[in-house]
Structure formats: structure tokens, C-alpha cells
UniProtKB/TrEMBL annotation, chains A, B:
Domain Cob(I)alamin adenosyltransferase N-terminal per the UniProt entry, residue ranges: 4-27
Annotated Basic and acidic residues bias: 1-11
Claim: Transferase is one of the keywords in the record: yes
UniProt KW keywords: ATP-binding, Cobalamin biosynthesis, Cytoplasm, Nucleotide-binding, Porphyrin biosynthesis, Transferase
Gene Ontology molecular functions: ATP binding; corrinoid adenosyltransferase activity
Organism: Endobacterium cereale
Protein name, entry field: Corrinoid adenosyltransferase
UniProt catalytic activity: 2 cob(II)alamin + reduced [electron-transfer flavoprotein] + 2 ATP = 2 adenosylcob(III)alamin + 2 triphosphate + oxidized [electron-transfer flavoprotein] + 3 H(+); 2 cob(II)yrinate a,c diamide + reduced [electron-transfer flavoprotein] + 2 ATP = 2 adenosylcob(III)yrinate a,c-diamide + 2 triphosphate + oxidized [electron-transfer flavoprotein] + 3 H(+)
Physiological role: Required for both de novo synthesis of the corrin ring for the assimilation of exogenous corrinoids. Participates in the adenosylation of a variety of incomplete and complete corrinoids.
Region of interest (Disordered), ranges: 1-22
GO cellular component: a single term: cytoplasm
């Protein structure tokens, strides 16, 4: 057990009491409740996994979750079978046909993105959904598969208690502007650089 | 439906064929399989949620997951009831007593961190666990509740197929050095700044 002298303990107590006063004041200032647009972007790991973690949190709070995958779909990821345990509390729609460099077919990619967006709009209209996860929507926007202004207008017109989480690299500036919360996942270090392959439970 | 002319479609196809060649070569270079140390740090949202998303992915791949919460614990988050659906495939241990500014008691915080670390070591020794989530371990290290060198030595000595994900702000440089993958969640924009309060399914 680490040794702690009395003086150190008292200093810590004073510091933390001050910290708590600041914290309580900050919490008291925050009074707004509303559905959020959350964007997870950047080159680092964790954009989709954080979005699925949020889905898990929402499910734990007893709400329903919608998932639309815009790009992925050609391969199976662990989240899907895991979320099947929640039965009809998860509405999962894999609309993508795989990475753009796998399909190599612009018309097919655009058609898939348009179908995915139609599904997203359908889920936005469903009042039983608490969180809508638009996985890799940023990729569809980046390649102009979808009209950015139309997507943003539709997101803004959603019902006010619906949370939406959007993932993918290179989020468009106008989407960042429209969002409430934006996290850039920054790559400090990645095991791929050290020759480690994609592994079950980590990448898929 | 978006209009696409033939020339544009062909240009896209060539670009993506090149991209695929690069991608395939990169994938072929990666041959190592090993348990990873993954660190999610930084001031942005998504450190713990990404870790729980990874837990979900691991569960979807049929593996067992261990969770040790070093700081949180005084309040309930949605992940816990959600993961209860997976029964004994999740070993969840809430060892923290709440934020350091809530306890205001250094000795109690140190004792809680030491108990949590002992539990982490126990789970590292359990060969049925595929992923160990050490939630907010970085906070315990930042306040020197635990000995950094001892923690890193123990992480390095774990069995080689165990993945460990560590969360919390201000990851220590020596831990970043020891890690395989480090993501800094950078705060681009946060709804708290706009006066939005902590909401169910989003913050807890």
C-alpha cells in the first residue's frame, strides 16, 4: 500500500473541494436538453466503435437504436451479431456494398448511398428511435454520393429529441458546423504500422 | 437519382482500381497477430464509449470481456445494464468510488485504485478473457494512485493473445510508448459548451 502523509492528504482534500465547487457550478449552468448531432471523424481508430458504444449506452437506458451502414456491408463485423441480442430494439440496415475501391463502380456506390439515405430518413421519422447511427455517412458525403445541403437540411429538420451519431473520416466543414459535438480521432500510433494485421474483435 | 456521365464513371473506376492495388499490397504486408495495448486518451468525447464499442465487437466474435472501472462507480452508466444481457461472458468490476473531486479523500482513492489494479491482474491471468477494458486507468496513473512502472511491467508481462484497452485523459508518455495503438480524442466541439446538460444515453 502506498504511503500517504497527513499533509499530502489535506492538500488533496482542499484541492478537490475547490475542484468540486467549480464542477458543480459548471453543471448547474447546463440546463438544455435536446437531441444532438454527434460527429466522430479523423484518421484515428474509434470512430465507429465509439458510435456503437453510444448505441450500447442508449440500449442500456431502455431506448431503441437505428443503424444505417453507408459503406461497410460487404463483410461482417462483431457489432451486428452482438446487437442481435437486443432483438427488435435495434433496427440495423446494411446498405453499403463495401469499400469504394472494392466496388469500383460509381453508379452502384451512388445508388447504394441514396438507398441508405432514404432508410435514414425513414428511421428519423420513427418516434420510437432514440439514437440513429449513420455509420460512414462522411465517406458518402466526401465522394459526393449524396447532396450535402439536402442531408444537412434533413438532419436539422428531424424531431428535436432524436440523437444522431455520424461517423467517417473527412467530415465536411458544413456538417461540422451543423453538429453539436465533434470529436476528431487523432492517430497517435497504430498497430497496422507495426505490421499487425486486422484481427477478430479488434477490427471486425 | 444523381446523374453520372460515362467519363466520370470510368475515371472513378480507374482511380479505385489503383487504390485497391495499394490497399491489397498494404494488407499483404501485415502478418503479425498479437494481443494489443490500445489507449484512448485526449479531451474529446468517445474514449470510454469506443472502448465499450470494442467490447461489443469482441462479444460479437464470441469472446469473453473483462471490465474494471478505476474511477467511475458512484453512478450507473447505460453500458452496464446493456452488457448484462451477455451474462457471464462479461466480468464487470466497478472498483472506483467516483470522481476524485467527489470523494475528496486521497487515501480512499489510492486504496480503491489498488484494489482495482489487483482485480485487473486477476483478469489478465484468466485465459478465457479476450479483451480487458481498464476504464479510466489513466486517471489513477495521472494522480499517482498507482505506480506507473509496475503497471506497465505487468501489462507487458501479460499473455500474448490478450487485448487490453485503457481509457482516460492525460495518458502518461511511458504508457503511450508501451502501447500498440493510441488514439487522441480531440475536442473539436462539445455540446456542454452550448449549455446542454448530461443526458441519458449520451453521457450515462
Amino acid at each position: 500500500m502506498k504511503e500517504i502523509d497527513q499533509q499530502e492528504a489535506e492538500r488533496h482534500q482542499r484541492k478537490m473541494a475547490n475542484r468540486k465547487a467549480v464542477q458543480d457550478a459548471e453543471v448547474a449552468e447546463k440546463t438544455i436538453e435536446k437531441g444532438l448531432i454527434i460527429v466522430n471523424t479523423g484518421p484515428g481508430k474509434g470512430k465507429s466503435t465509439a458510435a456503437f458504444g453510444l448505441a450500447l449506452r442508449m440500449l442500456g437506458n431502455g431506448r431503441r437504436v437505428g443503424v444505417v451502414q453507408f459503406i461497410k456491408g460487404a463483410w461482417e463485423t462483431g457489432e451486428r451479431p452482438a446487437l442481435e441480442l437486443f432483438g427488435d430494439r435495434v433496427e440495423w440496415h446494411t446498405m453499403g456494398e463495401g469499400f469504394t475501391w472494392e466496388t469500383q463502380d460509381l453508379k452502384r456506390d451512388v445508388a447504394a448511398a441514396e438507398r441508405a439515405w432514404a432508410k435514414a430518413e425513414e428511421l428519423m421519422a420513427d418516434p420510437t428511435i432514440g439514437l440513429l447511427l449513420l455509420d460512414e455517412l462522411n465517406i458518402a458525403l466526401r465522394y459526393d454520393y449524396l447532396d450535402l445541403d439536402a442531408v444537412i437540411a434533413s438532419l436539422k429538420a428531424r424531431r428535436e429529441d432524436l440523437h444522431v451519431v455520424i461517423t467517417g473520416r473527412n467530415a465536411k466543414p458544413a456538417l461540422i458546423e451543423a453538429a453539436d459535438t465533434v470529436t476528431e480521432m487523432t492517430l497517435v500510433k497504430h498497430h497496422f504500422k507495426a505490421g499487425v494485421k486486422a484481427q477478430s474483435g479488434i477490427e471486425f
